[in-house]
Amino acid sequence: MSDTLLEIDRLSVDYETARGDLKALRDISFDIRKGEIVGIVGESGCGKSTLISSILRLTAPNTRFRQGEVRFKGQDLLQLPKRKMRDLRGADISIVFQDPMQTHNPVLSIGRQMLDIQHRSNATKTEKWARAAQMLGAVGIPDPEARLDQFPHEFSGGMRQRIAIAMALMSEPDLLIADEPTTALDATLEVQIIERLHQLQQEFDCAILFISHHLGVIAELCDRVVVMYAGTVVESGDVREIFHDPKHPYTRRLIDCDPGHIKERARVLPTIPGEVPDLAKLPGGCIFRGRCYQAMPHCAKVPPLTKLKEGHHAACWLNHEETAQ
Ligand SMILES: Nc1ncnc2c1ncn2[C@@H]1O[C@H](COP(=O)(O)OP(=O)(O)OP(=O)(O)O)[C@@H](O)[C@H]1O
User: Which BP terms does GO give this entry (predicted)?
Assistant: First the structure.
């Protein structure tokens, strides 16, 4: 049996706007195996949120799926009836957002909310309460029994995020999508959450799709990374290999801007000069060439995503046999 859990296959998604179709995702392909942690990295506007909302089918009304499939355990989620998709969300696939207050209801105790999440279970109320306490304990909330009676505002930001993770894992999902879950936290809390996610992934044996615009955070946690730029995949592969030997100039720039260990990320980091192109008026050729310090005449043609070695792909003419020196 295949150990592939999620397959994004040639996915292209547009937003219809007054200025014409905005090409938010173009020909995206990658997969996640069972129990694997895959990171998606890219600057703001590169399509990370569009990708997550497409997987979960929680897209804005002006979204148009142009091409491709999102297969989860072999089933194309884009073709699934809405009711089945609703059942799948929060059960087989769960999500943790950047702002935990998006998950928590401010007027209900944490315990009440954790009971509500278990509405599909046949367990008794006492059993559900015990399970909620057990999950709070699993994410490292001290004295979990007592804290179930408290409200979201009575917890610190880092604790609220850990509770959001506990809630997302209640259903023992096969896939946890973590959408920049540490971006709003300071570096120390960020490290704690990353370490906790690592432990929980092993304990619950779920795959994680981890979204971040910091390659340093991805390097701490993930097995593989998919680098996105302006709605396309420009490089993908083993996280250590890409971190130490990036093949796409955009990935190199991301690493220069975010050099490494997240504990060292206290100072203001440099940014990549220039801007992501207007996705409603895409320039021809390589999408990165307007900002690329290694651009050459060949870049007027779109570079294909090319296999460099097993599991490592990049879309850059510098690595292509047609142009490589
Ligand atoms: N509903 C929408 N209608 C039109 N354009 C949209 C819509 N939602 C997003 N966009 C545009 O699509 C592109 C991709 O946006 P998306 O939010 O997916 O990127 P992102 O990488 O998640 O960025 P961020 O890190 O800032 O959230 C951007 O140019 C954005 O302005």
Answer: peptide transport; transmembrane transport
